Amino acid sequence: MDDRADPPTYRRESASTDQRIDDLLDRMTVAEKAGQVTGTWAGRLREAHDLDDVKAAVDDHHLGFAAPFGWGGALATTPEEAAAAVEELQTYAREETRLGIPLLFSVDAVHGHAYISGATVFPNALGAAATWDPEGVEAGAAATAREVRATGAHQNYGPTVDVGRDPRWGRVFETFGESPHLVGALAAAKVRGYQREGLDDPDGVVATAKHFPAYGEPERGEDASPVDVSEYKLRNTFVPPFERALEAGVESVMPSYNSINGEPSHGSEAHLNRLLREELGFEGHVVSDWNGIRHLHEDHRTAVDHADGVQQAREAGVDVASVGGVPHARRLVELVDSGDLDEATLDRAVRRVLRLKFEFGLFDEAPEDAVDEADAVETLGAPAHRERALETARDSMTLLKNDGILPLTGDEDVFVGGPNADDRVHQLGGWSAARDDGLPGKTIREAIEAATGGDVTHAPGTTLNEPVDVDEAVDAASEADVAVLALGEGWYIHEFGPEVLAGSETGRWPTRRDLRLSAAQRDLVQRVHATGTPVVGVLVTGRPLIVDWMADHVPALLMAYFPGTEGGVAVAETLFGENDPSGRLPISVPRDEGDLPQHHDALAHPTPIGEDEHPDSYDPLFPFGHGLSYTTFETRDLETRVEPAETDGTDASAERTVRVAVEVANVGDRAGTETVQVYARQRYASRVRPVRSLVGFDRVSLGPGESETVEIPVPARRLGYYKPRDGHVVEPGTYLVEVAEESTALEL
Question: Is the entire prediction scored with pTM above 0.85?
Fold first, then answer.
């Protein structure tokens, strides 16, 4: 269209956003409105779409969102292809449609723009959480946003704000762990990093807090299975991190696939309107998870057919059907035309989408603002971004056990084995490219070869599930000074699949039934251990695996998580002492599946036949917050003080800040970084409270012999809790504050 001679109000950059929205909305037909809140894809999802199919959907059904790249089945997989797809589709939407409304492009870039070749891939969220470093997580998200925006996309379906309460779950690696406070702090940091200075920042993207309101403790650990929780648990465990994301200004929220207390999130007016909008004050747009609306009639069966599911979702508060495609847009038109869906409901969603596009500046972009393929190629995997990914991977390295064998000297002859020793795809983990078509970075084997002056031999000994030349691996290990076995899990998403990409048949390890290493990997460890060569276990994994035999028998265990493109270097630097392991567990490592669910902040409870008759409620193999260093830290002189509220209010105690100060000393002979963890519990409360909860943390780096007093502010509100029927309360009384072995009482 060409209306440059006398542009309508919505085309005038000088008009206010509200004026432009009003003008454009008045011009739109019901079909154009329905399309504007519906997305489609290029690639293979339920069916294959090419760019011409997308253009036809935009032309005939006015679709407003598109995903031609940035997900597993996408059409475009290189930066050049992505930039070209955006330019072709955006030009068509602007110039060949009646109103010229631009498209908004969305991607899944949860730990880097990882579905595009050459991109920087950060550790997945559980590894990032092990850094306990909000500033580093924010910087990593900013780098990802820059790479996403360079390819032309505007919205990223992250961060994951779920609290991971079941380690069996196949998506726990996408979470920041089991602590609501840690999850909230890092999720808010990621929102700030993605969105940067706001929607008008040319290097920022829309962040999407997912999966609201509770997804991280599914029945049986099965992905998308029901989460049945009390209001007390929902509001004190799962919702608080979303509140932190909202406080950080997140622009979009995505509902969870599952049902909660029998109500599917995608069809829940109670959760999406009353809780999210009316109570929590969210003003952005709610975007469906992929196929989340179809699940209402296909799986949850709370809708009788697709049209009924569309109506349920729209009336519940879903604004955008992410990949609803032409069928969804058609259903919307039919529902409005028949009177089954109030057009005002559709208009509210359209207003939110148009506001986003206007504030993004999509209507005002000049030809010189077009996506540049050369810039995309240069930006993805930029040296500064990869250095940030390396820093995150270094800081995530969590030393679970060390009998003195680490750090290695650099002169040893090293055997490197295990299924994850020489596999970049496994280092990346899910939500990234599932094939190594020139992935950047070094594998663990390659990085060890570059780090040692001794001889390096290699044999995998096993795939994830099957023995491969075990005798060769054992013989080689027997001749080495040390054996580094990179074990664990490989690439998967959701319920450990899909098998065509994950390489394991559905139902074979890894599965939610078994948190131990596969039989083939356990056999490899035990046979190499039997040679007498010291074994260093490196766990490349998405879940906290039960490695009780290794904890008892091998001299060192390093948790590497899914460490990303720079993970091989980070592992090698840690093994050889160039990097001090400063990671701390963001999730408990259990001893046995029978102990689950198990987390550090369990509620207090009676022991009817005596405390001595009850095995410990919390006795994991490695506890939440655990992690060793190559140096030794001492913590002393814990003090607290209550800082008065800066303003008057009805809940004065909630506005106060508790200042927790403690001296940390490095009494070893190496530099290192300690994470100061502040836990608190209420001595007596009107509801049963956790035995302890994480309420604050900070990192401090010290040279040998150095000490520093670390002060951590804890808002008094964080010591309170949500009390059904009363709302959030901070009750007067005694609170016990703990840091390491130090503890003190605080009166509020």
Answer: yes
